[in-house]
Amino acid sequence: MRNTAIMIVGVGGQGTLLTSRILGDVALSSGLDVKVSEVHGMSQRGGSVVTYVKMGEKIHSPVIEKNEADILLCFEQLEALRWIDYAKKDASVIINTQRIDPMPVIIGRAKYPESIIEKIQADYKNVTAVPALDLAKDCGNIKAVNVVMIGVMAKRTDIEKDVWLKAIEKTVKPQFVEINIKAFMAGYNFKLD
After folding, report:
1. Averaged pLDDT in 10-residue chunks for the chain of 193 residues
2. Does the domain made of 4-188 have the CATH classification 3.40.920.10?
3. Which has the least CB within 10 A, 41, 91, 138, 139?
4. Which region holds residue 122: left if phi is over 0, alpha if psi is between -120 and 50, else beta?
5. Hey, how many other C-beta atoms are within 10 angstroms of the C-beta on 23?
């Protein structure tokens, strides 16, 4: 596998750290070198969060610069817009259609931008919009949005599905393995428009 730079963007409380741990385990289980940055941003619930994961034959730094991400995994629309400049023009951009209003919008000081996904699709050719919150609800737990998104991303890699499933089993708490496997499969089997 060639070196791959993945940015995970969302808001605090959406599971970006768990996502990066699963990706790290997948890389190590696949015999790849991996570097993960923990979190940049305000990780408390509601604050913007970005996590970098690089995997490949030899990785020197987890930092991803503008126009360098091969995959931009976006857990929320506005965060996709905020970080889109970090994606290569041919990157796989996977966006959860969920909208989480930031504090300036909640208190009426700002407006949530309209048509975010359409604006991104105008500039990037490989954009997948995923109703991950609905898929997670169907699986029985809205907190599994991140694992739904991992499933969507996993389908676009050359890493075997079983490697992803084993990483989930090893990484999540035992009482949540079943729901997370279900969420992963919902994402993995998600049909594109």
Report:
1. 91 90 96 86 71 95 95 97 97 97 92 97 97 97 97 95 98 96 98 67
2. yes
3. 138
4. alpha
5. 28
